[in-house]
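Researcher: We're teaching a course module on how sequence relates to structure. For the next exercise, students receive a sequence and then see the predicted structure as tokens, so they can try to spot secondary structure elements on their own. Here is the exercise chain.
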Amino acid sequence: MLDALFFRRWLTATAAAVDREAERLTELDSPIGDADHGSNLQRGFRAVAAVLEKEAPDTPGAVLTLAGRQLISTVGGASGPLYGTLLRRTGKDLGDAPGVDSARFAEALRTGIDAVAALGGAAPGDKTMLDALVPGVDALDGPSGSFGAAREAALHGALATTPLQARKGRASYLGERSIGHQDPGATSSVLLFEALAETAEDGSGGPREGSRG
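Model: And here is the predicted structure for the students to work with:
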């Protein structure tokens, strides 16, 4: 079962990953965005890690809901509302359960991703974070789903944004000039799945890699 400790460690690992990759995310954002994606997410996830250490919610749903609220209140631009909505809606879908298996988590995460799609008016193929989130949750939710499979699917999805023309977000204003650039939102979304797999692999309150819980 995945308990509150697992989710707190997952988000702490995500914050560390964002710290490591912030400069690269900003570099990816520079030619097709506002060159602030890495710094915005870094500020937001540092705040998430801090508030989770201070408040330590005791259910998975409460962990994610608190993290989502923190991102919305801390991060400027589009990434705060989008990532905040993702985590908050996932948390609300999980409710008050003290623990969930990975299949239930995948179901709730899909609800969060659907909320992101509705908020941004985007779909897979539009060169947004959905191009990593959707294949990631599909792989996690599959019959042989695992955190490692989700990580690989999300990464493949992010890389596949490079030849796409952006149809949503700031990059869409560039038209054909957005082609040839990997989407920064999809790239940062991969970090969520990488941190998820890392947390599972180290046995931090959840199933070992490859387990469905």
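Model: If you want an answer key for the exercise: Residues 4-29 form the longest helix (26 residues). Residues 2-201 form a domain with the Serine Threonine Protein Phosphatase 5, Tetratricopeptide repeat fold (CATH 1.25.40.340).
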